[in-house]
Amino acid sequence: MDLQMLIAVISDTHMPRGARRLPDSCVARLGTTDLILHAGDVSTATTLAEMERIGPPVLAVHGNVDDDELTRRLPAARIVDADGARIAMVHDAGPRKRRLARMRRRFPDADAVVFGHSHLPLHEREDGFQIFNPGSPTERRRAGAHTMGLARCTGGSVEFELIELD
């Protein structure tokens, strides 16, 4: 039997800002996973360190509002091997039109791309390739709810699930 790797997927936490914090339901889920992927706009190195203290390793890319330290420390893009599934990460995947095809060209060796920036949850797939935006657990903007994602990886495949936190 294949063991499953469970990955939390978050983006656009934009902390600290006022009294903003990760919802308790988000923190609880983060703590039960094997890995946390953050698709940028953490904001500060202190906030990243707080997320790392939750427990699972945190792999992140920098976003457009991250401070200078995070921008130096984190790559603009990366590819993560998750039990044989190759998940690319980038903060801004560009305009909605032809996004899936554009991400497939940019990351030809990836099975999926995780991204953020818009705060709008999205999951599209075509011919075995997927793009996934988990939305934001802290700043929903035009989205209907605060959200995050879970990815289940087994034997080279990945399945995404969007989780509403409200």
Can you walk me through this structure?
The chain is an alpha/beta fold and 166 residues long. It has one domain (5-164): Purple Acid Phosphatase, chain A, domain 2, CATH 3.60.21. The protein has four helices and ten strands, in the order βαβαβαββαβββββ. The protein has helices spanning 24-31, 45-52, 68-73, 99-106, and strands at 5-10, 35-38, 58-60, 77-82, 85-90, 112-114, 122-126, 129-133, 147-154, 157-164. A five-stranded mixed sheet has the order 3-2-1-9-10, with helices on one face. The protein has a five-stranded mixed sheet with strand order 4-5-6-8-7, with helices on one face. The radius of gyration is 15 Å and the shape is globular. It starts with a strand and ends with a strand.
SS content category:
alpha/beta
Which oligomeric form is depicted? single chain
Instruction: Give the termini separation.
Output: 35 Å
Instruction: Report the total helices.
Output: 4
CATH topology: Purple Acid Phosphatase, chain A, domain 2
CATH class call? Alpha Beta
Counting DSSP E segments of at least 2 residues, the number of strands comes to: 10
Secondary-structure element sequence?
Answer: EHEHEHEEHEEEEE
The CATH homologous superfamily is called: Metallo-dependent phosphatases
Share of helical residues:
10-25%
Number of domains: 1
- State the major sheet: 5 strands, mixed
* Mean of pLDDT: 91
